[in-house]
Amino acid sequence: MTMLQLFVGDIYSLLNFMSFLRWLFIGVVVLGLIYLRYTKPDLPRPFKVPLFIPVVFCLTCFFMVFLSLYSDPVNTGIGFAISLTGIPAYYIFIHFNHRPKWLQRALDSFNRSLQIIMLAVPAEK
Description:
transmembrane; AminoAcid_Transporter; membrane; about 120 residues; L-amino acid transmembrane transporter activity
């Protein structure tokens, strides 16, 4: 999808489409951190910061999202629609367990080829 967008417009339109999504996802992740801090306080954490820091950061992220929605709703909507194309891709390629045999073989072959090309083949036992 990114390659299509690069051919359609310039890089700045792609940045406008996706910048609000970046802040939305970062805000949701930090909100999850705050949630886990209260629901599972005994989990081991490599480091711990005062709670007001993630709260302020989360509010800032959501402010950026709402500011994008307010200032440029068309580009924000296009970016959101582009991100929604990931949902069918997730269900087809990741979640769906009963793939046709030909699709599973093609995906396995593709993964194996990429592992060889990128030198990411796991060591044999």
